[in-house]
Write a structure and sequence with these properties.
- This protein is α+β, with helices and mostly antiparallel strands and 84 residues long.
- The chain has one domain: Orthogonal Bundle (Arc Repressor Mutant, subunit A), CATH 1.10.10.
- Helices cover 40% and strands 12% of the residues.
- A hairpin with a 7-residue loop joins strand 1 (28-32) and strand 2 (40-44).
- The chain starts with 11 loop residues before the first helix and ends in an 18-residue tail after the last helix.
Length: 84
């Protein structure tokens, strides 16, 4: 999230809580990406990448079967980086 903007508009406290829960669960890893303090990027761990593929599959199923006439949910799949 280098742009500093969430894909889905969220209050900053809600976003911070969700990111913290992903970090605690081992789904994401936080890394410093700038010489400036408090500039971080959040990247998926191996565990997070495996979970992402499940979420994408469930979303595709939902778009087809649970809401065939509604708009699909579009998830950003490009740029998902794996932690090293």
């Amino acid at each position: 999230m280098r742009s500093g903007k969430a894909v889905v508009p969220l209050a900053t406290n809600v976003l911070a809580n969700r990111l913290d829960s992903f970090l605690e669960a081992g789904i994401m890893q936080r890394r410093t990406y700038s010489a400036h303090e408090n500039h971080y990027e959040y990247v998926l761990t191996d565990k997070g990448h495996e979970l992402a593929s499940v979420v994408i599959a469930l979303t595709a199923w939902r778009d087809r079967w649970a809401s065939p006439n509604g708009p699909p949910i579009i998830l950003p799949t490009r740029g998902l980086r794996r932690s090293s």
